[in-house]
Amino acid sequence: MTTAPATAPRPLHGFTLVELLVVIAIIGILIGMLLPALGVARESARRSTCMNNLSQIGKAFITHDADKTRLPGWRNTIDRYTAVMTGSAAVQASGSASLQQACVSWTVPILPFMDQKVIFDWYETYSGTSGVDDVSKKRIPSYVCPSVSSDMNSESPLCYAVNAGTGAEVIDAGLQPRGDGLFLDAAGNKSTDAWYVSGTTSQEYAAARLSLAQVSAADGATSTLMLAERCGISTPRDVSWAANPFRATTNANAKKETHTFLHPLDLAGGVAPDKDFRTINPTETTRPSVNPVPPGGDLTDWKLRYPSSQHRNGVVVVFADGHGRFLSEKIAPWVYCQMLTTNTKGISLRAENWQKYEKSVAGGVVPYIFDDEDLDK
Fold first, then answer.
1. Which of 44, 108, 246, 337 has the most CB atoms at less than 10 Å from its CB?
2. Are 350 and 341 in contact (CB under 8 A)?
3. Phi, psi (rounded to 5 degrees) for 23
4. What is the pLDDT of residues 333-363, one digit of tens each?
5. Distances in Å between the alpha carbon of 19 and those of 7, 24, 302?
6. Which secondary-structure segment (H or E) carries 211?
7. pTM above 0.85, yes or no
8. Ordered DSSP codes for 353-365
9. Are strands 160-163 and 314-319 parallel, antiparallel or unpaired?
């Protein structure tokens, strides 16, 4: 019996250095292509969550309006909390025994309609307790945009703001202009209040609030801005939803504690808005020019006066009827200013001046029509 000769083993053949380098290069290219796509997907998810947050807040406003027949103000009083805070020893000692430290923002009255009644009840039964009982230091997830969540260093962060128009900055015979914005000062400004300043910068005015029915009967809820992000890279990182809001004063009303976005100040020299002006995500070089220039020549409230976000190319907003959109940062200033007004027939002269410029053509107020640059889908 003949035995077949053994087959010689085939020599093992490994990768050459060139082949290994080629494989590594291919893997690197694939990773480089994949990572941006993953980043875009993550940001898309965060933007969607942000939209859900704003929609929830918008629904809370609508429910509040249905229950109380009016919207809350951007500044409000709550009987027990306001009384205790006004009369507290700390406030008395500060020499400012007024509403300055005794009002709450719009963030508080809507809490019962956001499944946060426990926190609201703390204000209604306020007794001056602090520390572990101080719910005003609690984080409310719906008030925080996930794109900036890790950047916020407040215990009770807030990334959103409401449309206050001129924010009681323009007063006519003691009345707030009710056509300039959606949220008014529901506390009012009294001459007995330590905030009152006689002269041109401030005066006594009555408390006021709007209802969605009034908005629908005027300019319409579908075209009036209610809520927007205000958490861009230039805004402070320590904004708190529980902060006591400050009353509006000329050239100083866009404050982190007030939780509002506002009309631009007076146009510089009455000149039509430049095409490069931005009322969404403005920067030092793209913010609208204003007149008069505040003392020191540096208007710093542009960082808080306008909607802003860390999403690319715009901000998430909610209109007064509850629908949400992504508003492009390229939106024309005259369009933005019309969206802030609730009743074109009842607006201040300053708001009218901003509305009347259709792109580069000055004239009467022209109803706006959204174009591709206004809305970023």
1. 337
2. no
3. -60, -45
4. 888 999 999 998 888 888 888 887 765 555 5
5. 29, 9, 57
6. none
7. no
8. HHHT-BTTB--S-
9. unpaired
